[in-house]
Amino acid sequence: MTGSYPRNGIRRAAIIREAQRLARNERAAAIVEMALVLPLFLTLLIGILIYGQYFLLAHNVQQAANDGARAAIVGLDAADRRAVAIRAVDRSMASIGDYSPANRTIAVSETSEAVTVALTYTVPADHFLRSSFVPAPGHVIGARATFELPAD
Q: Which site from 59, 86, 113, 116 is most exposed, i.e. has the minimal number of CB atoms within 10 Å?
């Protein structure tokens, strides 16, 4: 019995050395895998952020056009409707952190039956959407809303 004990000790040491060697190889493989996967993951993550912000801005622009058209129906004449619509759009777009009236274009048109507000918002040059890391959506976001005028 005593003769087999050192052999088990040698075998145990060999198993430990082999396990350590395999662990080193697995660490190296993990580093290589991370080097391959991390750029793809970061591209996906930044793309999600950029497109999420784009959809938020597009929603805000559409909502501002809706608010402008809704507010314009209470105006007394065409000039009053235009002024009311512009104020409503600016008030609605103020929720955007870097909103500037210089970056938007508002067109208010009306027929005898409806008022239409067309809003175009140009994303500022220093905005996150202008990142070149992933293909970004357009820098100009447009929306249009039409509301019927109340019957007299």
A: 113
Burial classification of residue 84, based on how many CB atoms lie within 10 Å of its CB (0-12 exposed, 13-18 middle, 19 or more buried):
buried
Tens of pLDDT, residue by residue over 17-64, are: 877 776 666 677 777 788 889 999 998 998 888 888 889 889 999 999
Three-class SS of residue 116?
strand
Q: Which one, of 63, 149, 57, lies nearest residue 109 by Cα?
A: 149
What are the boundaries of each domain within the chain?
4-148
Who contacts 68 (Cβ-Cβ below 8 Å, separation ≥6)? 85, 86, 88, 89, 92, 106, 108, 117, 119, 145
Dig out the tokens for 55 from the structure: 């959809």
Residue type, 146: T
What is the per-residue burial (b if ≥16 Cβ within 10 Å, else e) of 21-39?
A: eeeeeeeeeeeeeeeeeee
**CA–CA separation, 121 vs 96, rounded Å?**
11
Single-letter amino acid code for the residue at 127: H
